[in-house]
Amino acid sequence: MLVEKNGPKCGCGKKGCFEAVASRTAIVNKIIKDVKSGKRSKLSKFIKSRERIKSKSLTSAVKSGDKVVRKRITEGCDFIGGVLASITNLLNLDMIVLGGGMIEAMDFYMLPLIKKSFSEHAMDDAGKGLKIVASKLGDDAAIFGGIALAEEFLGVRV
Ligand SMILES: [Zn+2]
Question: What distances in angstroms separate CA 135 from CA 100, 110, 132, one per listed residue?
Answer without folding.
Answer: 8, 13, 10
